[in-house]
Each structure stands twice: as C-alpha cells, then as structure tokens.
Amino acid sequence: MKALITGGSSGIGRDMATYLKKLGHEVIIVGSNKEKLDKVADKLNCKSIVMDLSIKDNCKKLYEKVKSENIDILINNAGFGKFGEFTDINLDEELNMIDVNINAVHILTKLFLKDFVKRDSGYILNVASSAAFEPGPLMATYYSTKAYVLRLTTSIYEELRRNKSNVHISVLCPGPVNTNFNNVANVKFDIKSISSEYCAEYAIKKMFKNKLIIIPSFYMKTGIFFTRFIPTKMMARIAYNIQSKKR
User: Domain 2-244 falls in which CATH fold?
Assistant: First the structure.
C-alpha cells in the first residue's frame, strides 16, 4: 500500500512514515520545511513534496499532484498550537493555525475520501489530540481546532458504516508526546510525555484494526473517560489550572 503523510518531516508524522516503511509500504511525506523533509526522505528512501498546507489552493494542488499515485492511506498529521491568552495571541497566527489544523484536514479528507469511496477501499487517519475532548483556556484556538477534527472524523465514520463501506477512518487523540510541537507552542507539560515512536506505531496498528478513536496512553484514556462526568464550567477551571502550569 501507499501512504501520503502530511507533517512528515518530524515528530509523529516522520515516525509514522518510518514505521510504515518498516512494514513494507510505500510512503510520500509532505512538509513545508524542505531541509528537514529532504533529510527524512533520504533516510527512508521515499518521495517527498514540499508544500505549505496553510494555503487552501496548495491542498488542492497536492491532491492533483498525487491522485494518479493511487494512494491507499491518507494521514493528516500537519498541525501546530500556540499558548497564551486568547486576547494576546496574534490573530494572523491563529488564522494560520486554523488553516493548517482544520482547513487542510477538511480539504484533503474530502478529496481523497471521494476516491476511496469510489473504489471501496482505503484508510484515513486524522491526527487530533486529547485536547479535543475538553475546553482549552490558554490554548483556546488549538483545542477548538482539534475538537473539529475529532467531530469531523467521527461523523464521517458513521456515514461510511451506514453505507457498509470498506473505507476506514480513524482519529488519533494522544496526550503529551515528546515532539517539537512543545517548542512551537511554547509549552512544557507536567504530565510525562510518551515517545513519538510509540505513539506512531500504536496509531498505525490501531488504524489497520479499524479503531475509530485512538488514544495511545492508559492515563489519557482514563482522564478522558472521567471528563464526561464533570460539568463544563468546572472542566474549564480544571483545564485552566493545568494549562497555567505549562508556562
């Protein structure tokens, strides 16, 4: 099978590409940083495409560029976060985050899913976060983008199930992962991070088992389970206290 992985130059995306290659699959990695992308592509002996997915037309160009490759697996991994008070974060940075975290995922999912449905096969893995399950004061925009990815994926899953489709869609919702995300978002976690390699391998294994919501940590599974019993206002207060420790 052949996989297309966005955000493939580092972190979870790079390690997913590495693991898929280990399993014998072909991979095409996508990223905006040519130098980092080339290093990974050389190491894995795979194709790479330099593309800034914050630009909507580039998402469509990416699809046109690879649609003849008969992609079997789409992994929407590109994304980033930003820490701070909602009123303090630069609006253009937030809009750029929305373009990458939401619009790129939406566009690529839509375009590839149509092809997958026509041939009645394929896998889509959208990377969200445990942040998708709760309010996110001090990272309001990031948490909101990941909630969108979670709800989009679970909604599409039910449509595919009702249509008895052989196309499978999953959403990865990890807690803290040891990647460059923390540096970009300017945060540090009190909770112990899992390794990017473990997260990537766990996600791929569960994707192939058609798991809908993939949470690669018992600690995070437990935490997410109990959030459903906590009133929203109280959850927001708890989240704020946790977030403030990331400064």
Answer: Rossmann fold (3.40.50)
